[in-house]
């Protein structure tokens, strides 16, 4: 089950369950994080899923001669991690993603370990909207993406078993 660590405002989740924080329970300063490793395989799956076959992400020879000096992950790979935090942790299931702004600060490469973090920055009780600061950092602590997301937070409590899907 989800719990909030009172000393840090971190949302802590159970590995077998996805659960939300309903609008009435949200507080400014609440935070959640999801960490994933970027691999050539996950980049290829992202390309296949989205249809984005830009050679900067898939063609080693082309990418080596680019300004990045090698293959980089799609920018929205990081954006998708932020979406996962919003949809599964904070606010969690039932969240409607309304708007986002993202700044891409550094390239993400195969082998990087990304931590996507969101922090509740503002709450609009009249419209049930929540603004969250978003940041993705690599394994060195470097910010690679930063931005802001606005969501419509769920009114009711939702708890579901975490689906058992193939990990890629």
From TrEMBL:
<protein>
    <submittedName>
        <fullName>MaoC family dehydratase N-terminal domain-containing protein</fullName>
    </submittedName>
</protein>
<dbReference type="GO" id="GO:0005835">
    <property type="term" value="C:fatty acid synthase complex"/>
</dbReference>
<dbReference type="InterPro" id="IPR002539">
    <property type="entry name" value="MaoC-like_dom"/>
</dbReference>
<dbReference type="GO" id="GO:0006633">
    <property type="term" value="P:fatty acid biosynthetic process"/>
</dbReference>
<keyword id="KW-0456">Lyase</keyword>
<dbReference type="InterPro" id="IPR029069">
    <property type="entry name" value="HotDog_dom_sf"/>
</dbReference>
<dbReference type="GO" id="GO:0019171">
    <property type="term" value="F:(3R)-hydroxyacyl-[acyl-carrier-protein] dehydratase activity"/>
</dbReference>
<dbReference type="InterPro" id="IPR050965">
    <property type="entry name" value="UPF0336/Enoyl-CoA_hydratase"/>
</dbReference>
<feature type="domain" description="MaoC-like">
    <location>
        <begin position="31"/>
        <end position="133"/>
    </location>
</feature>
<dbReference type="GO" id="GO:0004312">
    <property type="term" value="F:fatty acid synthase activity"/>
</dbReference>
<dbReference type="Pfam" id="PF01575">
    <property type="entry name" value="MaoC_dehydratas"/>
</dbReference>
<dbReference type="InterPro" id="IPR003965">
    <property type="entry name" value="Fatty_acid_synthase"/>
</dbReference>
